[in-house]
Amino acid sequence: ELTDMILGMKAGVLGEQGITLHCKGNLSPMKFMKQVDCCILFSNLLDNAIEANAKVNGKKYIVIQAKMTGGLFYLEIANPMQGKF
Predict the structure, then answer these.
(1) Where are the extended beta strands (E) located within 1-85?
(2) What pTM was estimated for this model as a whole?
(3) By three-state DSSP, how is residue 81 classified?
(4) Measured between alpha carbons, how far is 57 from 68 in angstroms, rounded to an integer?
């Protein structure tokens, strides 16, 4: 629920900057974390992705994928970036 709220709060910025958001998966396995820690982590990851998109000329996007595999939870946030990693 809180991650949905965070996405809703960031929706305006995404729209203003022309960033397309794609989400795939289920974040409910993040319940192993305290809610406050989950919100801080997720919000910081989104802020970093938005900041990286702001520096890019061309297609702007954020892809969020979440999945459980072999008892492990994976959260991936992908975005374009300017320069080298």
Answers:
(1) 20-25, 61-69, 72-78
(2) 0.86
(3) coil
(4) 34
